[in-house]
Amino acid sequence: MFTHLHVHTEYSLLDGASRITKLLDRVKELGMDSCAITDHGVMYGVVDFYREAQKRGIHPVIGCEVYTCPNHLDKTSASREYNHLILLCKNQIGYQNLIKLVSLGFTEGFYYKPRVDHELLRKYSEGLICLSACLSGEIPSFLRDGRYDDARAAAQRFMEIYPDNFYIELQDHRLTDEKIVFPRLVKLAKEMNIPLVLTNDVHYIGPEDAAAQEVLMCIQTGKTLDEVDWVVCHQANSRIIDHCVRALHADPANLRWPRLRPTIPKRWKIRTRSHTRAMWNLILSQGICLSIPCPKAQTRMSSCAHAVKRASKPDTVRITPPHANGWNTSWV
Q1: How far apart are CA 53 and CA 32, in angstroms?
Q2: Fewer CB within 10 Å, N side or C side of the chain?
Q3: Predicted TM-score (pTM) of this structure
Q4: Does residue 86 contact residue 38 with C-beta atoms inside 8 Å?
């Protein structure tokens, strides 16, 4: 049974077009019993994802696609380049370490994106499973540029940081660069005895959502639909991204990778190695995830807008410690 381990939800802002509830409904419809969440650089959606997955009897794999760089403290223009890396939680220790990495990415490493470096990855590596990510990953980027030795060095480094927990990630979205990188990844994995795992870079649920995904990308990049150069197909005179690129599938391996079916057990192994259910039950039962009530006659959105507006004026908002009924916010 296929398990999606590279999935972006609505919390991958201006990038993911998958509402968590609809995403998990589709996972259930496809007969899958597990699914990961790996939003870009954030963990905003993991609580909702976990709760909704539980309701549907789906095993949630908690993760994140983090941004990596050589030195997360370097915030000069020369250090703006970054790579992607998939991290998945094996247990409570891994979950706590992922929280630390994501938080430090914002509090220490933020420069256009929340970034972490190899030193931080090594420090907070326990309890995490690592995948080499998409074309923007460090290893695929080296291979695309023909820097095979650098790719080997990067793979060796990740093997040392995540012993027995590092996987080479294979994707096929019919992109030109992937056709170049794909066989090189397979060769590298074979030479270094690194297990392979198949993923689909899920950003939306079905082909009917492809157009909305393209609009999101236009907003993110500041371009119009006429300016973009995505992988598109024109059917019935309408612009639709090829739905095989980033949609949720029953099993992409059956569609495009039949010769790599032997890697399927690796993917199942990762799913069964993620034991976060008991830990999350404890966290939610203890009420560690705070629920802040809205003032009367206000929605969450209007309450947030009101708070931002009032907080922009000095000494207008006073927040006192939580009491029995939640946080006490008073407006001066």
Answers
A1: 11
A2: C
A3: 0.79
A4: yes
